[in-house]
Design goal:
single chain, 229 residues, globular, 0% strand, mainly alpha
Length: 229
Amino acid sequence: MKKRQGERFFLVMGLVLLGIVIGGFVPPILARPGGAASMPSLLHVHGVVFVSWFLVFCGQAHLAASGNIKLHMRLGKASVLIAATMIILGYFVISGAYAKPDWSIAGMSRAASVMFPFTDIVNFAIAYGLALANRRNPTAHKRLMLLAGILMIDPAVARLVSTLGAEVPVIVIVELVLFGVLFAYDLITRRRPSWTSLLGFGLFIAALAAKLTVSQHPVWHLFVDFVFA
């Protein structure tokens, strides 16, 4: 029974992340002049693929909770394809945004702004890759998959916070709460934090530090020009 309850925790967390994604992106899209039709096709594809990943995550958590491990493993192959597509699309979305002279995140320069989606994609790739490597270790695997979702939720949280009219620091607070819930679950079920949870939180802190410091360095700007221009 404990195992099934534990797996339901990951389904609930997946649904929370999915709700943040939908709540963060759908209202701003509908509020655009011309609605969703005014968006470039690349962004439509990007959105569909990203939402698909969260839907698959929820489906995978449900299958694991119901004991349908065979279908869970088969669906995992689709998850790999979606994840690879997300990373590729992420590159082109960043390149498209960087090409816009007025593009900015948090009032930063275009090159500094690239650090935000760049670290999201890198951290997602690290957590997802480790999840695949630990697929025979259910405790680590499911946490790493959840962390992959948390580590790339920043854009959705930022848009949701903006839509609600809250202050920018609330973005970090929401993300810290997500990590806090996972740490609390670790303490309840394992009496100590999992190494995966500590790693995921470390990646989050490293990304935050990079956004505030490395993004301002001239070497980073040269890197962005070389890779995304």
